[in-house]
Amino acid sequence: MENIDFNVEYGDLQLGDFIDGGSFGDVYKAHWRTENKVIVVKKIRRFIKNAGNSNNEKANLNEIKNNKVLNHPNIITFYGVTKDSENRICMLFEFADCGSLYSFLHESNIKITLDGKLNWMSQIAKGMEYLHDQKKVHRDLKSKNLLLCNKYRTVKICDFGTIKELATVNTEGIGTIAYMAPEIWNEGGSYTERCDVFSFGIVFWEVMSGEKPFYDSQHMEPMALQRKINDGKRPNIDDIDKLKKFENLNYIKLLIQKCWDKEPLMRPTMRRLVTILGIQPRVYSKNPHLLLEIDRLRDICEEDFKFP
Question: In the chain, how many H helices and how many E strands?
């Protein structure tokens, strides 16, 4: 792996508990002695040239490149890169002490209010809006790639190995099938930021219902599920009605359904979602038409000025 700026001494790190592992490598909790902080170290598996690992290597180089330029409170902080004694690439990240959103929803007994759920979704939308403003798409937005910290109050987006520039030709099906937009699988298509909006809608449903996406189709083969999604299958929107203790949730159901619309251009932008989710839910409960009408004021630009 060439052209990498190794800005951290591996000897400054004290590896701790193993967190996770996969085809990409292994993730450890660690202590960064010189900075006196707990971090995460992602050790990349070593690649043998001409062994069919070019896509993995490309993804890791891509992740390093993208993490270096991303800076947002709802995106996990990237500290740098080093090499271990076995010459393995190691990426250093902020440690999210409350685990993933997936773990919170499906492996814990902690409860959260409706306002808390909507605040999480607002934070995710802000992080994704920032990413889209950088002309990049994530392509693998899911609850396992959303990390919690600050006593579960802050949610941060992670795992940027799948990022691509906007309008890149789609030559590969990247992502996790239950969260993937139908157009990602269309041969010769182009990625747009609206594929992330589809994934956002699935996560939104997951947060509101507390269920795993397509829990009723777990017996299906992945490709069969993908075909069903392409044909219009979505998680059961009425699962959200289990939260009857909350106010009228019809506006939330409508918003989720807009996010996962089969037609990409019918989905709201992340900018619009940030606006909608920044308003108290009772406003929409009393004025449901606002959900269709509200839009955020665009950024000021040259067209706003008329000079003599």
Answer: 9, 9
Residue 140: active-site member: yes
For 62-99, write each residue's pLDDT tens digit: 778 778 888 999 999 999 999 998 888 899 999 999 99
* Ranges of each domain in the chain: 10-94, 101-293
Residue 298, Cβ neighbours under 10 Å: how many? Answer: 9
Burial code (b: 16+ CB inside 10 Å, e: under 16) for 236-274 equals: ebebbeeeeebeebebbbebbebbbbeebeebbbbbbbb
The CATH class that applies to domain 10-94 reads: alpha beta
Instruction: Give the pair of three-digit tokens for residue 186.
Output: 């269309």
- The answer to whether domain 10-94 and domain 101-293 are alike in fold is no
CA 218 vs CA 37, 135, 178, 225, 234: distances in Å: 40, 34, 10, 9, 13
Superfamily assignment of 101-293 in CATH?
A: Transferase(Phosphotransferase) domain 1 (1.10.510.10)
> pLDDT for 129-139, tens place per residue?
999 998 888 88
pTM: 0.85
CA 115/CA 206 separation, integer angstroms: 15
Of 12, 26, 140, 238, which is the active-site residue? 140
Contact 80, 67 (CB under 8 A): no
